[in-house]
């Protein structure tokens, strides 16, 4: 009964914290709410008229939704780069940032699931994902494995920080024997969610653009570059607008992770380009379409030729120690790297896999206003969830939120 009382008090206090703040905070939350309403309106159009209002067709059946889903799985997995040093290796420099990273993982996973729901057409078909009720096709389908690992990782990233914050809310230290086993499991699980997502594409033999042995490792490299890059940007914002203290050495260590991952990702990109263009076959047509256009069709050229230079520029800037330690250059590099990998793992990966079609037909894909509206609404949902989680966690960690036994 006492723990239930503490939980009720935590919910009440958290609600008070997230509903009060500065004018800038209220403008931010109001903007996110507006964008979510726009997304809901666009989604209502999709529910009413079906997926025909999107740019997807029977030729290109995955588009903006699955592109964002694929990218966000990597963002969620990137939390492991803070979890492992903090909980497993006991690196104190990461301690202040780890709860923020896990909150970001929770928000990313919620967005992942929302994009899956949007891509399936509506929530009414989700029962097919429930084992024993729907057509789950377990264990043969890689999609079912993806559902399991994503929900499992979401559970780990909710329960571990919740336990730690729940103890801190009571003025107690969290017991390592309770959360460390789950933290160790989450390290392997984080690698698993992105590898399984990569295997989902990699196992489609009829799509040679994805049927690449390097796809899984490159997924991990890009995830460990883009995810921590976003974490650095978020920590910079938190440090500037809250009293939560983030040390420079914490940002520098995360920046080193981003740098190494970005370098590995770039090397793998060069390897893939060599494979596709040095001795091209008919299986290279998707890559030719992506980078140079095919038979006069070139809708993706502006996207990929924006992503590649940004990727290279960010990696070069981060490689030099003096530049990386300059906060302005670091933030700029992390931002353009995040954008570059979003393009590369989105439009640069998903759409070309369908082009050309089985009979050589080229049906280009362009997202519609409805898709863009739903996508912006889901990103706003993720930002809203993260803001709520981060504001509560920061309040507890700063000691502003504490359980008082004399509360009714």
Automatic annotation (TrEMBL):
Keywords: Cell membrane, Membrane, Transmembrane, Transmembrane helix. The keyword Transmembrane applies. InterPro entries: DsrP-like, NrfD-like. It comes from the Bacteria. It is a multi-pass membrane protein. Its main location: membrane. It is found in: Cell membrane. It holds the Pfam family NrfD. GO terms for cellular component: plasma membrane. The chain crosses the membrane at residues 25-43, 64-84, 96-118, 148-166, 178-201, 221-242, 254-274, 300-320, 329-352, 372-394. Belongs to the NrfD family. This is Polysulfide reductase NrfD. It comes from Aestuariibaculum sediminum. The lineage of its organism: Bacteria, Pseudomonadati, Bacteroidota, Flavobacteriia, Flavobacteriales.
């Amino acid at each position: 009964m006492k723990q239930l009382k503490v939980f009720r008090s935590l919910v009440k206090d958290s609600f008070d914290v997230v509903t009060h703040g500065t004018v800038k905070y209220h403008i931010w939350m109001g903007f996110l709410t507006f964008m979510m309403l726009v997304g809901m309106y666009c989604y209502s159009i999709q529910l009413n008229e079906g997926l025909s209002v999107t740019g997807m067709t029977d030729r290109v059946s995955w588009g903006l939704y699955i592109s964002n889903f694929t990218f966000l799985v990597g963002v969620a997995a990137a939390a492991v780069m803070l979890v492992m040093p903090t909980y497993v290796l006991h690196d104190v420099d990461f301690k202040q940032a780890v709860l923020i990273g896990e909150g970001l993982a929770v928000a990313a996973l919620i967005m992942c699931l929302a994009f899956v729901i949007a891509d399936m057409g509506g929530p009414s078909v989700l029962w097919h994902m429930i084992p024993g009720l729907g057509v789950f096709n377990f264990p043969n389908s890689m999609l079912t494995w993806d559902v399991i690992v994503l929900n499992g990782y979401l559970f780990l990233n909710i329960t571990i920080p919740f336990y730690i914050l729940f103890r801190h809310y009571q003025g107690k230290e969290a017991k390592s024997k309770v959360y460390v086993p789950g933290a160790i499991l989450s390290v392997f699980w984080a690698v698993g969610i992105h590898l399984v997502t990569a295997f989902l594409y990699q196992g489609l033999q009829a799509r040679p653009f994805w049927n690449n042995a390097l796809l899984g490792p490159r997924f991990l490299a890009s995830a460990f570059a883009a995810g921590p890059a976003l974490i650095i940007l978020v920590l910079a914002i938190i440090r500037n607008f809250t009293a939560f203290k983030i040390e420079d050495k914490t940002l520098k260590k995360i920046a080193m992770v981003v740098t190494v991952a970005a370098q590995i990702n770039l090397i793998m990109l060069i390897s893939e380009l060599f494979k596709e263009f040095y001795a091209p076959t008919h299986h290279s047509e998707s890559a030719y379409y992506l980078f140079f256009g095919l038979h006069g069709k070139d809708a993706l050229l502006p996207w990929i030729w924006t992503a590649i230079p940004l990727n290279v520029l960010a990696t070069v800037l981060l490689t030099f120690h003096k530049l990386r330690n300059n906060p302005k250059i670091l933030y700029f590099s992390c931002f353009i790297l995040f954008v570059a990998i979003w393009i590369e793992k989105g439009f640069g990966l998903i759409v070309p896999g369908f082009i050309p079609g089985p009979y050589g037909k080229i049906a280009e894909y362009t997202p519609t206003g409805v898709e863009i509206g739903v996508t912006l609404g889901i990103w706003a949902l993720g930002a809203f969830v993260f803001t709520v989680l981060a504001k509560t966690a920061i309040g507890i960690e700063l000691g502003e939120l504490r359980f008082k036994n004399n509360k009714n």
